[in-house]
Amino acid sequence: MAALADNGQAQEPLGSLLVKRGLITPEQLEVALQEQKSSGEPLGAIVVARGFAAPATVAQALATQHGGLLKTEYGFATGFSAGGLQSTGAVGEPPVSSPRLGRAGAVIAITEAKPKANPVADREAVREELSLASAETEKLADANERLVAARAELEQRLAQESQRAASLENELATLRSGDEDLTKWQDAVAQWQAAYGELEQRLTDRDTELAELRSSIEACDSVRTDLERGLATEVERSETLKQELALVESRRADAESADSERGALEQKLAEVTARAEALEAEAAAARELEEPASDGIRAELEAKLAQADDQLQAAETVRADLEQRVAEATERAGGLEKQAEEAETLRRSALASEQAIGELERQVGEASRELAERNAQLDEVTAELEELRAAPSIPVGPWADAQKHLLFFQGPDGYELVERDGPPPAEGASVEGHVVSRISRSPMPGSDLPCAYLVLN
After folding, report:
1. Is it the case that residue 454 has pLDDT exceeding 60?
2. Can you give the pTM of this predicted structure?
């Protein structure tokens, strides 16, 4: 978007303005534009540097483009008149370059044709020139008033800047006179920076150690969790083994009862066997006496033999029953012995479980103690880190052992100088709503106390 002049109209390009008024040629404008594309410098500076137009001419063109009085790098200018007359302000009338046409080296002067004398037209032209000159005079008067106001403002600003420069020169002289303090301050800063670097390195090392301790604590927590889980498993297994052991003890008691019953059955079987053998012997004897015996004896013997057969069958039945019961008792005894072996194995497993539980409890205790030690180390490291982080606030430098110091700050009634006990605060520290900007020697003559210069936070 084109810039607007004071009259609200769009500004005419500087090159077009110079060409239209015959101050430079189109060829010169083309050359200047080409150079501007490559260098990026202002068009007016290029025109002046190449000698296409004088600085005053470019200043008048810029003032015309601006729409009134303008201060440029070439001086103040009021701009060209509307009728084509050049302003004759402080910069004088701008020169006009000689028009050149044709190729390079061929210079052709253009001579204007003289019009025929016409008195009426001349008078009208003179009136018009006079009216334009009057308007230009009023414009110049206005410009001069603005120039006087601007000059007064500039003189006021110049006085302020001169006063400020004098103050800066006094401060610079003070600083130069205190080169020794500056050297000491620089040494103190170097020492503080070295100490701060060492603290940073220690902080880094502590952070690394803290990370290792945290990793170790996490590992201890994981091991402790595994041990507690294993302890719970072993306790549950021990309870199961105790129940199985009680069952085996009960079965063992039953086995011992079965052993006593087996002995009684074997004794009874022996008695039945002996009785059966006796009956068989009687039966054999009866058979030997069968032929010569009398009928009565024979009948008696037959009755005894029948009775013996009955008793023998009963004995055989009892014997078979006893043998079956003995076999069952033997089988039960074998099972009970196996159960007794299993009970012994379970007892050993229970003992091993109790030993494992004791070992796990010992490991859990050690892990708890180690965790407590690591937590204590972590607390110590954390406390040391806090001390290290607070260390930069400790004064470092030639005034670290000072017994007193001064505070220089701006109070409600002006600048104040207050004496305090102890070494001065470090730079950057906060003191009652102020921040220490620098530390130097006391501004009071003959005083060697350090002074902390404070600014509002």
Report:
1. yes
2. 0.28
